[in-house]
Structure formats: C-alpha cells, structure tokens
Amino acid sequence: MTSTVPAPPAGVVGHVVGGRPVREAERFGPVHDPATGHVTAHVALASVDDVDRAVAVALAAFPGWASTGLSRRVEILFAFHELLRSHRDEIAHLVSAEHGKVVSDAEGEVSRALENVEFAAGIPHLLKGGFSQQVATGVDVHEVKQPLGVMAGITPFNFPAMVPLWMIPTAIACGNTFVLKPSERDPSVSLLLVRLLAQAGLPDGVVNVVQGDRVAVDRLLEHPDVAAVSFVGSTPVARHVYETGTRHGKRVQALGGAKNHLVVLPDAELDAAADAAVSAGYGSAGERCMAISVVVAVGEIGDRLVEAIRTRVEGLVVGPGNDPTSQMGPLITAEHRDRVAARVQSALEEGASLVVDGRAGPPVAPGADGVDVSGGFFLRPSLVDHVLPEHTVYREEVFGPVLSVVRVRTFDDALRLVNENPYGNGAAIFTRDGGAARRFEVEAQAGMIGINVPIPVPVGYYSFGGWKGSLFGDSHIYGPEAIHFSTRTKVVTSRWPDPATSTIDLGFPRNR
Ligand code: NAD
C-alpha cells in the first residue's frame, strides 16, 4: 500500500504543524477514489522526526492554551460549530470522495460530530470541581481538574470526520493540546477540520495533524511528551496501542472492532426488524463499527424474517457515493473488497446458505456524471442464512456488506450467543415484550444496547464504548467520560492559620 517513491508535488496531503502545512516526506501512500479506483492524491507518511516536531510544537503550545480562559475556549468552540455547520456539504463530499460512502451518510457523520462540539462547549460547567468547607476547624478542601498536556488521537478510515471530533473537542476544551494521526486511507478531511479550527480562532499549535502509518503511531505511543492516547480502529491494533502506550506510562483508551448482533424475538414487528437489519447491516457498506453483522432469529420468525430481509436487500441501489440515487457505495480498497468477498465464499464452503450473493449481483449504477466506475471497489450486499458460530463469517469481523443470520431456538440461546462473542460493542433486540427487553438490557455483555433501535450510538452527552475485545482501557470516548479521560484531578486542602493557635504536633493529621 505504501511507496518509497516520492509523490509528485501536486496532490500531496501533508501534515499541519503549528498552523503550517508540511508537504515534504520521504515516503508517501496512495489515496484512492474508491468509486473509480483511481489514485487521486498521495499522503505524506510521517517519519519519527516529523512526529517529534509535531509533539514539540504541541508541548510548546500547552502552557498558553491551558491558561486560556474558559470563556475564550467556549467562544472558539461555538465558532467552530458554526463553521462545521456551514461547511457540512464540503466535508461530506470530501469524506465521500476518499471513503466512498454516500454523501447523505457522510452528512450524518458531520451531524454526530456537531453533538460532540456542543457537549464540549459546556466545559465551564463540566470542569467544576467539588468544594467542602470546614472539613476540620478552619480547613477547607476543593478539587480541580487540570489538563494532562499533549494528547494524541489515532483514527480509523471509516469515520474520517466524526471520530477525530469524538476526541478533539473535549481534549482541547479541557486545556490540552493535540496531535491527530488520521487514517492514511482518507486523510484530506483532517486538513479541512484543522483549517476550520484555525478559522474559529484556535491558536496555532493547539491541534496538529501528522499523516502516516504505523511508524507515526508507534512513535506517538513511545514519545515521552505524549500524556494520553485515544485510539479507534481494529482490535489487534487497539490491543497493540493499549499495551505499548500503557507500557510507556500513558493514559490510553483504545476502541477496537465489533461483531454486533441484532436479536429478533418471535413477537417482534417483522417489517420494522427487517428494515432495521438492512439499514444497519448495509449502511456505509457495512463499514461501521456499530453495523449489524449478525441477525439472531429466535424461534419461528426465522423464515419470514429472512424472506423480508431478502426482498429488501435485492432492491438496494449500489453506486458511487456522490450519486444521490445510490444507497450504498464501494468499499475502501480493492484488497478489503476481496477480503469481504472471500468471507462470503468461506460461508458457502463451510455449509451456510447464500440467500443473496453480492458477488454475483448486477453491475453498479453508473457514475452520476457519466464517470466510469468499472474500476471501483464495489461489492453488492450479501445475505447468508443458517450461519453457525464456528463459521469463519461469524468468527471474523467482516466489516463489509454481509449480513449473517444465525437461527436459535430460544431467547436464552440468543443471549448466550451475544455473551459468548469476544466482541461487545453494540447489541440490539427487537421485541414487543418489555420483560424480555429489560432482561436483555441487564444481561447482555455489550457497552451499548438498542431496544428496537439497531445502531444504539449514544448521543453526545453520554459516552461511547464497547466491552470485551471492543475496548481496551477503562474510559469510553466523548461525553462525560472524555472529561475524566482528558484531565487529572488535584485535591487542595487549605487552612489560613491563626498564629495564636498554631502548635507543633507530630501525630498523623486527624480531622476534628
Ligand atoms: P486499523 O486498525 O487498520 O487502523 C486504525 C489506525 O491505526 C489508522 O490510523 C492506522 O494508520 C493505524 N494502524 C493500522 N495498522 C497499524 C499497526 N500495525 N500499528 C500501528 N498503527 C496501525 O482500522 P481501520 O481499518 O482504519 O478501521 C476499521 C476498524 O476500526 C474496524 O475494525 C472497526 O470496527 C474499527 N472501528 C471501531 C470503532 C469503535 O468505536 N469501536 C469505531 C470505528 C471503527
């Protein structure tokens, strides 16, 4: 994927350090338009020295930013919010051009990002500490939350606007400075985001971007001046980030992959469950960490449910993301498309039934403006029935437009399946039975639960995070837990002594 051949000067997606663009690099990687397969730019891949320069700039910016008043930080966040709103269309088109998702889906990504900025703009309230007067005679105690220093964010390809904005607003609202390492697959939107932050009045050096691959990531994980790392990506890399970062004394939250189950009980509203399975299974071509990957059909609903899903899947319009008639775009790379197709083949070979074979579907819709999309990384949706837990398609995170249906006899069987899965990001249940839904809420081993809601991504004033192999660390991301993650607490005990009553006392201080 990467090249040691220097890219042409035009079309380089570079770093932004201290407000300055940096386009020089020793290595570059290709950036594709997944709808055509063409290389549209080259991304600079940072060296250790590039990362060190960005961290040094962020460290130098820290004292000034940490002492910037809360009302000024809020002003900047409000201005940034306005700019994000007014540039929503531009951001969405840029996301679509490098990621491939349809523009309306990318607009949704920006909407969810806005919620995180809104939450962070409440920082004067969120940073309030406790105060206890007279804990002993003449002694008061109060608590303050102070920023950590330089925080780093390492983000995946699938939400190139939203996931960086899961991290940056709360990190900087708390007074930290930031180094973002975006995905090298769709790096351009990060440059637009830092441009808008600068336009909003954020001082140079507070948020920096280094483009790159594992060289940049590993340097951030080892760098002595990086205090904390937020990571979102696949589970093997999340585990590596958590283990390496914590070994180097950092605070780390590392969100990993997922295998989200949607349990459909026999009493569920059939059409609503089928609509939800299709929307959450194939939206963004299944490249969402909260995508539904497995439908668990309980009891006699199985045949009717599979049929209802099949008719919907066969009607889906697959095409370029910038065509308003497309419902689903291409996958991120040709390699990933081939890997997903191989999972479909494995399901067939291991004994599952292929109800809809996306590899054999009709060609995709042509490009909206007559562009040739025959070289695009498209794969039509597949539906696989009678999947068993030992099948490869069930065991692996597919991260593509493939929905597996596992049939079970009882609610208990369904719950066991969810809980035995090594991932625990989201889990959903469709039912009209309040008692069953409540039991699912209490007993399902996952961080985010949907009741008749297939993709239960928490709103910006709650926090987002999975359990088990879907998150390493003890903090969820954005929302209240991000304030905790981005600050450290200091407790101050104070007395204003009266010289007349002051004495020497070598005993351990007791509160009286
Ligand atoms: P990825 O793990 O390949 O890459 C994520 C980041 O890590 C990128 O910035 C990449 O440059 C870097 N990276 C990749 N390999 C590395 C290595 N060996 N060492 C160090 N750094 C490395 O993930 P992706 O393919 O970009 O994104 C898809 C994955 O992210 C899926 O598994 C998906 O479930 C997951 N994801 C999870 C969440 C969540 O909230 N839990 C959200 C979005 C995506």
From TrEMBL:
EC number: 1.2.1.27
CDD domains: ALDH_F6_MMSDH
Pfam families per record: Aldedh
Every Aldehyde dehydrogenase domain range: 29-492
GO MF, any single term: oxidoreductase activity
Assigned keywords, A-Z: NAD, Oxidoreductase
Enzyme class (EC, first level): oxidoreductase
PANTHER family, alphabetized: MALONATE-SEMIALDEHYDE DEHYDROGENASE (PTHR43866:SF4)
Database matches in NCBIfam families: MMSDH
Name recorded for this polypeptide: methylmalonate-semialdehyde dehydrogenase (CoA acylating)
